[in-house]
User: What shape does this take?
Amino acid sequence: MILSMTGFGEGKGSYKNKSITVEIKSLNGKTTDIRFKSPANYREKELELRKFIIGHALRGKFDVSITFDAASAAEEFGLNKALFKKYWNELDSLKKELKFDQDGVVAAILRIPNVVQAEDGGIPDAEWKVIKKTTKAALDSLKKFRMEDGKGMMKDLSKNVKSIQKCLRGVKPYEKERVTRLKAKMEKNLSDYLGKQNVDKNRYEQEVIFYLEKLDINEEKVRLGQHCKFFLELLEDKSTEAKGKKLAFIGQEIGREINTLGAKAQHSDIQKLVVTMKDELERIKEQVANIV
Assistant: This one.
C-alpha cells in the first residue's frame, strides 16, 4: 500500500461556544514543510502541533489552517486601543507632512501585530485537547484521501513495471542472433583489414570470446529482473510506512541496468525494447515523486 503526498483533510470540533475547524492540505515535496494559519493565541502551541502533524502525516508540504466561527472570534479577541491610537497619531502626523491619502489606513493598522490580540493570552488545557483531537481527525481524513489516491498510483506503477518485465522477456529471442551477428561482423572486419589467410584462428577465437564476454547482458538481465520484482513487492506491502524514497532508489537501480543493457545491446530490436523500458521508467519516476 502506498500513500500519495497530495491530499486534503478536515476536522471539526467544539469547545464551549466555539466551533473549531482544522484543514490540512498536502503537496509533494522532498522535505517536510509545514505552514500554519491560526489565531494568535494558538501560536504558543505551534511547535507541539508541528511535531504531532509530522508524526502522523510523515512527509510532504502542508498548509494547516485552524479557524473558529466569527461569533466566538469576536469574544476571543479585542482591540488594543492604546497601540491603535499610537499608530494612528504617528500616521496622522506623517499625513500632514507628506500629504498622502489616508484611505485604507485603518485596515493596515489592524493588520499590525498585537493591535488585535487575544483577550486571554493562554489556551486552557481542555481547549488544547479539543484542538489536538480535531487535528487528529483532519489527519485521519488526510490519510484516507492519500490512500485512495495511492490506489490509483499503485495500479499505474504496477502496470509500468510489468511492462518493463515484458520487454525484458522479449530480449531472449534475439540473443542467439545477436551473438551470431557480432561474430560475423568481427570476422568480416578482420578479413577486410588483414585478409582471411593472415588471421590467426586461435588468437581470433580468444579475442571473440573476450569481446563477447564484455558485451554479455546476462547479469544486467538478472539484476533488472530482481529490481522489478522487489519494486512490485514493496508496492504490494500492506504497511502504510513511507515508501517513496525506497521506490525512488529502486527506480534508479532499474534505470542503471536498462542503460547498461542498451549500451551493450548491439541489436536494433533489443534497442527498441530498451527505448520502451526507458519510457516506462520515466512514467515511474513521475509517479514516485508524489509518494510519501
User: Anything to note?
Assistant: The CA atoms of residues 214 and 289 lie 35 Å apart. Residues 81-114 form one domain. The chain has a mean pLDDT of 85. Residues 125-169 form the longest helix (45 residues).
